[in-house]
Specification:
This protein is of the alpha+beta class. Among the domains are: 201 residues, Aldehyde Ferredoxin Oxidoreductase,  A, domain 1; 150 residues, Aldehyde Ferredoxin Oxidoreductase Protein, subunit A, domain 2, CATH 1.10.569. The protein contains 21 helices and 17 strands. α1 runs parallel beside α19 and α12 packs parallel to α15.
Length: 563
Amino acid sequence: MRIRMDVDLEKGTIWTNPLPESAVWLGGRALADSIVVQEVPPACHPLGSRNLLVFAPGLFAGTSMPTASRLSVVGKSPLTGGIKESNVGGMAGMSLARLNIAAVVIRGSSTQGRSRLLIVRSQSAELIDAPELHGLGNYRTVEILKKRFGDGVVVLSVGPCGEMKMAAATIAVTDVNGRPCRQAGRGGLGGVMGSKGLKAIVIDPEGAKLHKGADPGAFAEAVKEYTGILQSSKKTAFWRENGTAGLVDVGHARGSLPTRNFTSGAYDKKDGVNAERLKTLTAQRQGAMGHACMKGCVVRCSNIFNAPDGRYLTSGLEYETITMMGPNLDIDDLDTIAQIDFRCDDYGMDTIEIGATLGILSDTDLFRLGDREKAVQLIDEIGKGTVLGRILGQGATTTGRVFGITRVPAVKGQSLAAHEPRSLKGLGVTYATSPQGADHTSGFVVEEPFSREGHTERSRKAQINMAIVDSLGLCQFTGLRDEYELFGRLMGALTGTVPSPEQVRSLGQEALRQERRFNEAAGIGPGQDRLPEFMRSEALPPNNNAFDVGDEDLDRVFGDYPE
């Protein structure tokens, strides 16, 4: 029986209830969406006590399915002002699910102190004051918590950026090695957690049990089929060999690699930051490629990157970070990017949002593209909360307003990710229309990248499929999207109630409907489903394309969406 755990930080109370029968197929994003939409006033302040923060493992989390235990974190975003789902790997999703916890709902704000802990065990949960952790980075926080509660605990925590309630703040999740290097990064939900006075959630997995399903035999057979698809996929082999850094060469070749503050789609110095360079340095320094962020992953797209002296520096030097802190800032040095990545993980800030923010700051005299030392200094200013740092920590849109910068790569207050929509126009439609803001994980579209036609339907389908994937707990790098029949068999064998392919698809449809309704009630209407103006007027080298998908096509993505 899956349960919902509610935690009222203001009253200091914790209670649990079984999920209703109507939620039998709901997990991850879909479940968390339903809670937020029903219980959060759309017009509330994101950092106020009426906002909720929901942690929901995907439906398949905690089972024998590989690469299927991701966690959705959902609340009203201080960055976009709308509903936001931030999806994260690491060990938290699996650990919560094996304790039969389908959702942890954090409500209210602590009145007991600045840093509280939620301790979750197999048969109990409690709140503990921990003022000694206030202001600490995520790495030191995890170190202290492991000494106190045991090396095997899983930790979700916020760093100083979350405690300062920054709109670009993240929630760190420990990986298989117990390092807080997996980030629920987008949307500033770390600021929401910090606003509630919750420093960390500590999960003790002792007593947790593997979920075998209502029909263990049928579930095991379907998992075998699913696993075979992953293991035989060329994409899996690509990710395992190159990591997500393999996309640097791909993006450069197709002209979609954000370079020098989104002024080009190709980077002449890309060989300093691509997968080949990463693999060379990793081998020289005895790091690791093919690293898994969660147990049982067969894709293993991550890595462990060490400093020149062999000391651990960061785990998960990923494409988005490499690109937004590298080519986008004209920094062609992986060591500098890795130093930035470690700081961002420790302070708790989104490398995508902050990379875009530093990029637009180059329109002022405060930062010059290519200045490695200044980039690191500015990251430290954000983490330390200087006046400038607090401005930058609110993200690209706020920084643009403060400094009068009009050329800001953002939609609905959230910066674009590391894929240029003028060379990937279908993805540009997703950026523009997704309820999540400019989020590449909301529905990636690569077909007909330079055409202005057909992307309404492509983006809609991709967004529906990704909502399903997020709800089931699958990593996007499985490559599985519209295998509704297989998903239905897995869901049926797990829950005992078999959905039709149409019902599987409706899971994603309904999640998007709820998100759109919430956003509209919060004042975010269809008129904001647009890319930045400069992307229509500026042609992007080397393909010299502007974004020219018509507004009427953008409006049709959800405008003719069946209710």
